[in-house]
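Quick illustration for those who missed Monday's session on complexes.
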Amino acid sequence: MNPDVKESDYLMPLEVAGLAFRNNFVVGSGPAVKTLDMIKEIERWGWGGASLKLAIDPTYISKPPRYRWLKKHKYHAFTAETRLTFEEGLRLMEKARKAVSELILYANMAYAGEQGDEGWIRMAQKYEAAGAHVIELNMCCPNMSFNVESSGGRTSVVSGASVGSQPDVVSKTAAAIQAAVDIPVFVKLTPEGGKIADVAKACFDKGIVSSGSTGNRLAIPDFDINDPEQGICHLQDEPTLACFSGPWIKPLALRDVYEMRAKCDPESMVMGSGGIEKWTDAVQMLMCGADFVQICTGVMIKGPKILPKIVKGIRQFMAEKGYGNYRDFRGIVVPRITPTDRLTLYRGHAVVDEKKCTGCAICADIGHCYAITMENEKAQITLDDCTGCSTCTDVCPVNAVSMRKFERID
Ligand SMILES: Cc1cc2nc3c(=O)[nH]c(=O)nc-3n(C[C@H](O)[C@H](O)[C@H](O)COP(=O)(O)O)c2cc1C
Ligand code: SF4
Ligand code: SF4
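Prediction with flavin mononucleotide bound:
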């Protein structure tokens, strides 16, 4: 263990399917988990688990990596990625299992051949023999057949997100694999297809221990309008649908986790990933219902050293709030999320603090508001015209506007 990291900076233990995790945090499968040295570093910084880079059998669409970290837009986008061959995955797992003592190792794997469940089972059994603690079925990657189909191409191979939105197919395959190995099978899902909660539920109903996630989302990154036929990645010609991750994706990931938690058995172990960078992000993910949190982009950009700060922040938060265990606040917002037709709303209006108002008139430009005028270089609110929407509180650069709250609207 890294002498710079105290136990209190990483320990938040949980036991799942007989496996002792040091904490709920797993480095998500990706380019930061593809060598033995990387895995050793992940262990050294105290992570609960590491999901090794996807091994796919037989290998297809494995290319040199092409990434962009567009920090101004708060997203990471990749267009091409190198996958491990099955043999490479097995060798890495064998070496990793010998090299680490506390890290829980996930075999992130996908079968893309013609043997159906038999092919998946064969891979899982070999990974089990190689020392994997967990089999993680990759039913999420949108950068393989799903990308091809989404952008007008054709392929006879069906893998990743193309399979992942089918509750019956995913749960049947997962259950068949689980019956064939003694280690737990976790399923990593996709929100592409809009059925992530249905798929998670189908898996849990068939006895799968953990499923969840927002893997990457396919989208078109911001491109140069003066050169629209050129893709945004260096060393690449054409534009393509890219795999998005990082902070931009977090609100969608929170929603996915919320939907899974709301639909699935309270004891089911939900995994959430997508845009987690700070301890506050992680608390939100846990509060929306996650048990495990996976982080990929955060580790790609800043390295595995981000973990102690995250766990330390959560532990301090728990101490302040009197929580003894993450389960005390896991899913806490789920029952509070209210359908829009049943929201509790209050009458009220905006108020300008004239001492703070600089007279910049930014609020007077709001296109949907007739209530704000400028008088003597101060914003004035005509109360009868104020609908209480509160946009002015957000556009004011000096926080000169607040909302006054009155009685509840029935
Ligand atoms: C470059 C890159 C490669 C990835 N490769 C894999 C992979 O091999 N297997 C997998 O299950 N997820 C893969 N992912 C998805 C991540 O593990 C993670 O679920 C997703 O990026 C959202 O989390 P994040 O915002 O923390 O990155 C990859 C993500 C990125 C950015
Ligand atoms: S709350 Fe909405 S309607 Fe009222 S002043 Fe502000 S922007 Fe205008
Ligand atoms: S945006 Fe704020 S500072 Fe500017 S005029 Fe409106 S209230 Fe005043």
